[in-house]
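name: query_chain
kind: protein
chains: 1
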Amino acid sequence: MGIPHLFRCPISLDLLTDPVTLCTGQTYDRPSIEKWLAAGNLTCPVTMQKLDDSSFVPNHTLRHLIDRWLETRHQFNPGLETVDPDHSLVVTLKSTLESQEVSMVSKLQALEKISVLCEESTSRCTLFLQLGFMPLLLELILGKVESELSLDHVEFLEQALACTLQLLANGEVKSLDILKEDSKQASLVNLFKQGTNSIKLSICQLVDTISSSSEMEDLCAVLGQNRNFLGQIILLLPENSKVSEAAVRAIRSLCSLQSNGWNLVREGVLDGLVAHISTLSAENERRERCFSPLAVSTIERLLQGNGPAKEAFLNNPNGVSSLVRMVFGASSHEGSESAVNSLMIICRDSSLAREEAIGAGVLTQLLFLLQSQCSGRTKTKARTLLKMLGSSI
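structure:
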């Protein structure tokens, strides 16, 4: 059974895998018509009519008919070789991204199509991974970062990073080993410096994924040794935005390795975390409840068994007072236990810290906490801190 004439692309003569329709009413395969238009042609390939509008729209009806025809064809002719439209489309999308001749606009459209296909089906995500899209995307993102990013390139990078995160959600992480290369880490740093908030947010999410994976411990350690890289993440902390929230998550995940924690402290992460907490304004109280606890628990993790971290924290003029504010700073008590724990670590060997905490109102905060609905464990630690501070009164 041959392919019906209406199901063939008039340009490639192959089965339509992603049919789109021009303003002339003629339908073509998306990659074929994109290539035609990218070559500077301003006419419809079939009618040769001049195109007043070169845009096109997906022909979902025809795509549905082709899918039904393929199912019927295989049902009544099981011996025939099956044509997999998804496979053909994915191969075409890969060719579009790999080509040096295709415009940035066409590549961006390919990425948008990849994103849509991944959302529609996990099996398609698997197909993308099987055909090597993850290494390709990473190379496109990190291969060469220009000194100044054009608007088109920025949009391309944003979409490429979004697609990468979508594929990572399906468990593919080994391709990220490419980030062990010095040149790729340098590109990552440049993207932090030049990229939009969307790009920075995606990179932080990428770091969080890497650092949270047991398979990526070696890469997590490599990133933790890159001072420029750590410095760029820390710079995001005081911004009080979704990007800073993602930066806190990335830093907390990086701290899963003790050596990374030490390196972060040397790069000034505690000052950044204190600034993140302190700059949360009254009108952002809801966000404070959601995200300050994560920053406080990260501080707690860094302070545990880390002498330089304690010293760095005590040298910050807002350090102790920021923790005091978090003892009873949220109605849900998220972060209260971490704040109390952190204050116990800081105050245990420092009379100056105890005096500063008392001056910042910690006794009142602890009494409020003991009268609240927080957990029994948190109340036990609050009583221990009260006893510790009692010797300084």
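note: The two ends are 92 Å apart (CA to CA).
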